[in-house]
Amino acid sequence: MSNSSSEGLPPVPRKVIGLAVAGAVGGFLFGFDSSVVNGAVDAMKDEFLMSEAVTGFAVAVALLGCAAGAYLAGKVADKYGRIPAMKLGALLFLVSAVGTGLAFGVWDLIVWRLVGGLGIGLASVIAPAYISEISPRHVRGRLASLQQLAITTGIFAALLSDAVLATSAGSAGQPFWLGIEAWRWMFIACAVPAGIYGWIAFRLPESPHFLVLNGKEDAARKVFDTLMPGDDTERHIREIRESIEQDQLSTKKGSLRGKTFGLQTVVWIGIILSVLQQLVGINVIFYYSTTLWKAVGFHEQDSLAISVATSVTNILVTLVAIALVDRIGRRPILLAGSIGMAVSLGAMALAFSSSVGTGSEISLPGAWGPVALVAANVFVVSFGASWGPLVWVLLGEIFPSRIRARALGLAAAAQWIANFAITLSFPVMAAGSLPLTYAMYALFAAASFFFVMFKVPETNGMSLEQAETLFVPKGAKVAALASK
């Protein structure tokens, strides 16, 4: 990423870019730990003699931990700071990696998956909050998108390591180093990025927004002076302070509560964005793609290779989103992505409506196999260039400073619960009817288009404080103006 602008905007200090990249390492762990199960699903199922329902739960239970971790993240981040929350996440990742890899039974496996989910949930909230709070407004979209780039890179690394381990051992269920099965090494490998994330967390400065919120303005000035020397530090401090004061006029001490079904409208918008991001079924591709492609005729090694190629595509299109988000805005990209997802998911539903056979014997005749493969990758492109990164951008910038961490935690928790529902239900729904399953995802993609069209304003080019005012009720705005 360039640290200067060709459009006359001030340059981005290299330290800011470095901190954004470092903060996004949590996204890498998020992607790695959540997707590494892809290559291990079938071997786990055979090892512990799991039914379809138990297999789905063993895969999806991490997402319940993610929901709890995301909710916990807001409380930890607000009380102790963004950096302590990162350190806790790293510890949970590390413990889960070793525990899952050495699991001796299905319930033991499920417990360690749950612990890993807590770490993923923490990282999913802290990274976008931290990056948004240290980023200059004119590049905040690009820097916040690094979260999704890190997630997609983590997914790629997980699927690549799965493919290498399974190929080297002969299959995921075969013994490898030290006589331990390859699928177990897939999980143990998570310990490496977990250790790196923990080391990074000890070297990052605290968010200046958190410092101001807690009356530590001198410490916040030092951070701003270090990150953006020569910039107007007092203006940054003043904007944060004013946003806090305005938020206190419209809410009681940073409460999430409001008149819209018990929550502020902006919190509901964040929750619905998060839920729609998952209800389109994106994680079915990354959690079950190897099993899916094996079911339509590909061998295990070929299925793993296809999954790796799909993850590379996801990284490339995320780079496209990063390049465009601060140039053409959030809304146009989200709307275009919704259309692409709806069309490609509809094509997948049509392709699988022509399948023959049932269960593991299913196959797609003629050209329908390639059609399904192309449609799946078009879906990944559409998601990766739009809803993947941009939902995290919006979640990092639409919430008022006083409630940002908690509101982001609640939205992320809702996202993980939706992810859990999709992941848990897919094996059962797929066994019943793949066409109806993908048609349902297509309907949610269509719904995402209309939600953005009517409920999500453009926030491009605004400071965090300006973006917040788009979602403040009119009465609160009047009260804020009257107080000045």
* Rg measurement, Å: 22 Å
Largest sheet: none
What is the second-level CATH architecture? Up-down Bundle
Order of helices and strands: HHHHHHHHHHHHHHHHHHHHHH
Q: Give the CATH topology.
A: Growth Hormone, Chain: A
Number of domains: 1
State the distance separating the first and last CA atoms: 40 Å
Helix content: over 70%
Strand content: under 5%
Keywords:
22 helices; disordered C terminus; Growth Hormone, Chain: A; single chain; about 475 residues; mainly alpha
Describe how the helices and strands are arranged.
Elements: H1 14-23, H2 25-35, H3 41-48, H4 52-80, H5 82-101, H6 106-134, H7 140-169, H8 182-188, H9 191-201, H10 208-213, H11 217-227, H12 233-250, H13 265-279, H14 282-295, H15 300-328, H16 330-352, H17 368-384, H18 387-397, H19 404-432, H20 434-455, H21 464-469, H22 474-483
Helix pairs in contact: 1-6, 1-7, 2-6, 2-7, 2-9, 4-5, 4-6, 4-19, 5-6, 5-8, 5-9, 6-7, 6-18, 6-19, 7-8, 7-15, 7-18, 11-12, 13-18, 13-19, 13-20, 14-15, 15-17, 16-17, 16-20, 19-20
